[in-house]
Write a structure and sequence with these properties.
Layout lengths: L3 H9 L16 H21 L3 H5 L6 E2 L4 E4 L8 E4 L2 H21 E2 L16 E2 L5 H14 L6 H15 L2 H8 L4 H5 L2 H15 L4
Parallel strand pairs: 4-5
Antiparallel strand pairs: 1-2, 2-3
Length: 208
Amino acid sequence: MLSVQELESIYHKYTIPQENDIRAGKHWFTASRLSRQRNKAILGLMIWQGLTTPEIGNLTTADLKLREGTIYIAGSRSSNELTLELKPAQIMELMEYQLQTRKALLKYFGGTTDSLFLPTPAAGREMAATTNTVNIWKRLREDIKTQYPKFINFLQIRSSVITHWLKLHNLRQAQYMAGHKYVSSTEAYQVNNIEELLDDINKFHPIS
């Protein structure tokens, strides 16, 4: 499990190149900068709302409600619909993405779409009208892994988030926040709490 401090550190240390960067003249720079601006907005939704990659891929522009400070996640066959509160630390990044970064990405997009998160054009070239987000996850995984060797995958982030929710909220509230249809799905994350407790017992009250 990743601690709350580690999760937030992953977000805050995910850097975005500035426009005055010495590499700004390179042909790939603009696409790279746009992708990192988008990825940081996505990372916040994983760390503070515990969203899965399919949930993020299915978000539309109407789901992000910056004025209300919330985000709506549609339900699926395996999850309930829900509305989650946005955290102050992520609102500015989401606002910049929606109002500036996404508009810049749309210039490369060969069509129209209401999908919130758009893929990155290869080296700034125009791309076909697709909302396939596969290239987003591959690059984001590589970036985080370079920064945090303890990082395994996005499921690890979600598991850590839900485990911390269970320490702060009751079971039913954590179930709602995780979007689980069945409370048993949320209960499974309590095993992590038990394992941590056993570690503490062994550390301070060793059996042998």
